[in-house]
Structure formats: C-alpha cells, structure tokens
Amino acid sequence: MPSDAPAAPSDVPARPRRCRLKLMLTVAVVGWLGWGVAGYGFYSAAVERQAAGAKLTQAETARSGLADELERQRSGSGQLAAVHQKTAAAEAELAQLQARIAEASQALAAHTAERDAAQARLEATQASLATIEARVAAQQQDLAAAQARALAAGA
C-alpha cells in the first residue's frame, strides 16, 4: 500500500534542485550587486557633497574675511588710492570665489544626479529581483504540482 508521506529529499530529482539552487544563487548575486552599486553611489555622492560643502564653507570664510578687510580699509585708511587698489583686488578674489562657489554648486548638482541615477538603477534591480522571485515561486509551484502528479501516477 503506498504511503501518503512526502518523498524523501533523496527521491527528488537532482536536476530541479540544481536549477533552483542556481536560480536562487543568481537572484542573490543580482541583489548583492544592486545593493553594492547603490551603496557606492550613495557613498561617492556623500563624499562629493562633503567636499563641495567644505569648498563652500572655505569660500564663504574667505569672502567674509575679504569683506572685513575691505571695511577696515575704508574706515582706517586715509589713503584713498591704496583703498581702491585693495578693493579691486578683493573684488577680483571675490569673483574668483564666486566662480568656485558656482563650480561647487554644479559639482553638487552632478553628484545629486548621479545619486538619483544610482537610486533608479537600484529600484530597477529590485523590480527585476521581484520578478525573478515571482518566477522562482511559480516554478516551485509547478515543481510541487509535477511531483504530486508523479506520486499520484505512481500510486
């Protein structure tokens, strides 16, 4: 009389188990790669954001120092020609600093775009992973149904 107990693992064909294992390993690798790409994107964006912030802070500090120097020159110096020369130099340096601020802002925007692209790639990878997991579940159900049919046919 046939028993109703499920087949022992040794009774299950080795090929579907290998395929399922390969598929699960592939899904795991794709998942890890996706997270690795996202992590790298977030890390590099954070590093660049910190560098841009440091440049902005340095530029603001320098600009503040130049503004203070300009004010001291106006109030403390009676030599108008010297004040005009220093003012012109300070304005030129201020223009350079403003250009650096603009560059830092552009770099920050570029890194933000890179981060957004990495986020989009991560979301696409996660969607792909969900699709693969759904296929794996369907294949597992098909396998279970085939095993049930095989057991029923053998009974």
Note down, in words, how this protein is organized.
The chain has helices at 14-76, 80-154. With 155 residues, it is mainly α. Helix 1 (14-76) runs antiparallel to helix 2. The radius of gyration is 33 Å and the shape is rod-shaped. The mean pLDDT is 85.
Are there runs of 5+ residues with pLDDT below 50, and where?
none
Tally of strands: 0
CA gyration radius, whole angstroms:
33 Å
Structural class assignment:
mainly alpha
Q: H/E order of the elements?
A: HH
Calculate the terminal CA-CA distance, rounded to whole Å.
8 Å
Largest sheet: none
How many H/I helices? 2
What's the pLDDT, averaged over the residues?
A: 85
What global shape is seen? rod-shaped
The helix content, as a percent range, equals over 70%
Report the sheet-strand fraction: under 5%
